[in-house]
From TrEMBL:
PANTHER family xref list: DIPEPTIDYL PEPTIDASE FAMILY MEMBER 6, SERINE PEPTIDASE S9 FAMILY MEMBER
Family statement: Belongs to the peptidase S9C family.
Keyword terms: Hydrolase, Protease, Serine protease
Gene Ontology terms: biological process: proteolysis
Residue span(s) of domain Peptidase S9 prolyl oligopeptidase catalytic: 450-661
SUPFAM superfamilies: alpha/beta-Hydrolases, DPP6 N-terminal domain-like
Alphabetical list of Pfam families matching this protein: PD40, Peptidase_S9
Molecular function terms, GO-annotated: serine-type endopeptidase activity
Organism (species): Herpetosiphon aurantiacus (strain ATCC 23779 / DSM 785 / 114-95)
Protein name per the record: Peptidase S9 prolyl oligopeptidase active site domain protein
Length: 682
């Protein structure tokens, strides 16, 4: 048997990612997206690795997937079956690089027909029930490129909140509207209100569209939204809800009399679990269906090995409403019926990332485990589940992947915390190893039974990787999720220190060679930890928060997140905001710190990293700051491939120096090593 090789940062280049599994209405075929990395040429003529994707088709009873789209550039995504099963609509960035709508006629075959050429592209496509038209979202036909005269004046006039969004950039003055395209005709805009429209869903008779919007100026900076009903023929709309909180994924009952949706009433603010609600088509108060259900209707288990969309819209069938929810570090399938939520997946089922359901209740879903990337599964109406397609199966047989070991511990107040540890590759009893405490973001998310490429790379480099779900995370009930609200750096800090205390009792952990790292909320906690203790020998903060005051006004979510999670408006209580800002305690930071941040991060703006770096540099503390151009908050999960690889190699270099005694490498070493690795694979 050939010797297994180790995971490397550059192993990312070998992975294939599947997403957006869409089962045909009759349950016989599944369309999905497969994404890979290949060398492409960008607009400036530079050739480098980038993501490509195609629409694939597989029989629901098994077989080899068939590639359905063959664009020479860009990415194909969002496959959607026509209700009669004869056509497949999808979105592609081929040619111009702007997402446009295409349709494949499966009966006739041949090339896909392009239905739109809109300057701002299209999103959120949805077939009309008669299979003869599609609704979609677009900001309009105007080309993004400005004329020469317009370019002489390039200032931005901002009169709304939010005015930017991570992964999007500064919002255009044009609002997102609902458009309609009849097959064989030109697309038409069918709404024209001065607010953003989202999530259009056709009524069963095709006469109305439910959609989501924030239509009141005073709610622009909050997550409170409403569901509206658009009469397509008349062009009029009416509000069905009363802005209780966020609203997602309207889903019609089979008879068209009710609309279910996912949302919450902000009973614990931003820390509220997403729940299942319902409102009558005729109007009236929305009703909470999932009364007493303690878990959020969302997929909140983290993975850095997913690319693409993973829909979790509910499906309303004659025997109930099907949906996903995250419980105990695993996302599972549920059915609401007879006034209760019923779990459908076995306890040890892979953690589901996204799904779709046919009319005969067959379900296609993507799911993964801690040692398996996302794969495609088929679930029959009788409850049986079988694996259809795993694009990384062969690769995983050649690489040594370490199974995480689960543990639990009681924090300072007796609260049980769940965690895992991945032992270093080549682990030998009687030896001691350096370790890394990795803190998840959110804070309302979770680690769990999903594959983490980076964790395997760290284990292959000789580290024990420890990761836990401290209070504030999802999957452990509403009370657990809300415990961190307005207490960042409080009891959550004590949960994490209790994990470190426990790890130090393991005989294979070298307590003098422990590191700490995390991103987003995990970056905030890393900053907080090293400003309040010197027990860690080195640290790495990623896409972090250092100053709650400036975060409020510079983050795309600052106003609603800051007011709710931090407890008010900063100008009303400056001391409160600064008391929980790590920058206030920068004098106490002596732990060597690597700061990684993206220039286009609008969630945790780069100024947060700049403040921290500048203060530490002025204080002559050991610090390195690495900035990634063209990247946003999602660098570690969907950034440019070479940036993702470089990011991990900077982390390995930093901890390799401070925990393993290696020499720090200059920046140009990483550029050469990544480029050389790519060339060697061609």
């Amino acid at each position: 048997m050939a010797e297994l090789r180790n995971w490397q940062a550059t192993s990312l280049l070998e992975l294939r990612f599947i997403s957006d599994a869409q089962i045909s209405p009759n349950g016989e075929q599944i369309a999905f997206v497969e994404t890979w990395i290949e060398e492409t040429t960008n607009k400036s003529g530079t050739r480098k690795p980038d993501y490509r994707s195609a629409i694939m088709l597989i029989q629901a009873d098994g077989g080899i997937p068939q590639r359905m789209t063959f664009s020479v550039s860009g990415r194909d995504s969002s496959p959607r079956w026509s209700p009669d099963g004869s056509k497949l609509a999808f979105i592609s960035t081929r040619d111009a690089g702007v997402a446009q709508l295409f349709v494949l006629d499966l009966a006739r075959g041949g090339e896909a027909q392009q239905l739109t050429s809109l300057g701002y592209g299209v999103a959120e496509i949805n077939w009309r029930p008669d299979s003869q038209a599609l609704a979609f979202i677009s900001r309009g036909a105007k080309a993004k490129a400005q004329t020469h005269v317009e370019s002489l004046r390039d200032e931005k006039i901002i009169e709304r909140l939010p005015f930017k969004f991570d992964g999007v950039g500064y919002l255009q003055p044009e609002y997102a509207q609902i458009w309609l395209v009849e097959l064989g005709q030109e697309p038409n805009q069918i709404t024209d209100q001065a607010f953003d429209h989202a999530d259009p869903a056709w009524s069963p008779d095709g006469s109305e569209l439910a959609f989501i919007t924030v239509s009141r100026a005073e709610l622009e900076h909050t997550r409170q939204a409403d569901m509206y009903l658009l009469n397509v023929a008349a062009g009029t709309s009416r509000c069905l809800t009363n802005a209780l909180g966020p609203v997602y994924h309207p889903t019609w009952s089979p008879d068209g009399s009710q609309i279910a949706y996912i949302g919450h009433d902000q009973h614990t603010g931003n820390a509220s679990n997403e729940a299942l609600w319902c409102v009558s088509r005729a109007g009236g108060d929305a009703r909470l269906l999932s009364v007493g259900f303690e878990y959020g209707l969302e997929n909140s288990v983290i993975s850095d090995a997913r690319i693409g969309r993973f829909p979790y819209r509910p499906y309303w069938r004659d025997n109930g409403i099907y949906c996903l929810a995250t419980r105990a570090a695993r996302t599972r399938a549920y059915r609401y019926s007879d006034g209760a939520m019923h779990e459908l997946t076995p306890e040890d089922n892979p953690s589901i990332s996204g799904y779709s359901q046919s009319l005969n209740k067959r379900t296609a879903f993507t799911a993964g485990t801690a040692t398996q990337l996302e794969a495609l599964y088929m679930g029959d109406a009788d409850g049986s589940i079988h694996l259809l397609y795993d694009p990384n199966a062969a690769l995983l047989t050649s690489i040594q992947t370490i199974e995480p070991e689960r543990f639990t511990y009681n924090s300072f107040d007796g609260l049980e915390i769940e965690g895992w540890v991945i032992k270093p590759v080549g682990f030998s009893q009687g030896q001691q190893y350096p370790s890394l405490l990795y803190i998840h973001g959110g804070p309302h998310s979770a680690y769990g039974h999903n594959f983490m490429h980076e964790f395997q790379v760290l284990a292959a480099a000789g580290y024990g990787v420890i990761y836990t779900n401290p209070r504030g995370g999802t999957g452990y009930g509403q009370r657990f999720r809300a415990l961190v609200r307005q207490d960042f750096g409080g009891d959550d800090y004590r949960d994490l220190m209790a994990a470190a205390d426990l790890a130090e009792t393991w005989d294979w952990i070298d307590s003098k060679r422990m590191g700490v790292l995390g991103g987003s909320y995990g970056g905030y906690m890393t900053n907080w930890i090293i400003s309040h203790t010197e027990r860690f020998a080195a640290a790495n903060t990623q896409r972090c928060i250092s100053n709650l005051m400036s975060f409020f006004g510079t983050s795309d979510i600052g106003p609603y997140f800051g007011e709710d999670e931090f407890g008010g408006k900063p100008w009303a209580d400056i001391d409160k905001f600064m008391e929980r800002s790590p920058i206030r305690y920068v004098n106490s930071i002596n732990t060597p710190l690597l700061i990684l941040h993206s220039d286009e991060d609008h969630r945790c703006p780069v100024e947060q990293a700049e403040q921290l770096y500048t203060a530490l540099k002025v204080l002559d503390k050991p610090v390195r700051f690495v900035r990634f151009p063209r990247e946003g908050h999602e660098l570690s999960r969907s950034g440019e491939p070479l940036h993702r690889i470089a990011r991990i190699e900077y982390i390995l270099d930093w901890f390799g120096h401070y925990l393993q005694g290696h020499e720090l490498k200059p920046a140009d070493h990483f550029r050469r090593s990544v480029a050389g690795e790519w060339q060697s694979r061609q």
